[in-house]
Specification:
0% strand, mainly alpha
Length: 122
C-alpha cells in the first residue's frame, strides 16, 4: 500500500521521512567511505595480528577462514554489500541511514583503534 503525504501516517514513518531533514548525499558518501576504509583496515590488521599470534578472531562465523586470503575477500565483499544496502535505505529514509551508518563507523573506528593498540603493545 503506497504512502501518500495527505494521508495520516504512523509517527515512526513521519519521523523517518521528516521533510526538513534533507541531505545532498555527500554526508552519507563520506560516512560510507569511512565505513569501507575502517572495515578493510580492520580486516588487514586482524589478518596480520592473528597470523602473528597476537590476537584471535571474535566473529565465530569468520573463525574457520582466519589466516587465509578468503578472509580478506569476504570482509571486503561484505562491506561493499552493506554500503550498497545503506545507500538504498538512504533513498527512502535518509535520517535512518545516516544514523545507522554513523553507529557502524563509530564501532569500526573503535575496532581499528583496538587493533592499533595491539600492534603498539606487541
Amino acid at each position: 500500500m503506497p504512502l501518500f503525504l495527505d494521508q495520516p501516517q504512523p509517527f515512526v514513518i513521519q519521523l523517518l521521512r521528516f521533510s526538513s531533514y534533507t541531505l545532498a548525499g555527500s554526508e552519507l558518501k563520506y560516512l560510507l567511505g569511512l565505513l569501507v576504509g575502517f572495515e578493510i583496515l580492520d580486516g588487514v590488521m586482524s589478518h596480520f595480528l592473528i597470523r602473528g599470534g597476537l590476537a584471535r578472531e571474535g566473529n565465530p562465523f569468520l573463525l574457520p577462514l582466519v589466516g587465509e586470503i578468503n578472509f580478506l575477500i569476504i570482509k571486503v565483499v561484505g562491506v561493499f554489500i552493506c554500503a550498497l544496502i545503506l545507500w538504498d535505505i538512504y533513498k527512502r529514509f535518509p535520517k535512518l541511514a545516516v544514523i545507522t551508518t554513523s553507529i557502524f563507523v563509530t564501532f569500526y573506528g573503535g575496532l581499528v583503534l583496538w587493533n592499533s593498540s595491539l600492534f603498539l603493545l606487541a
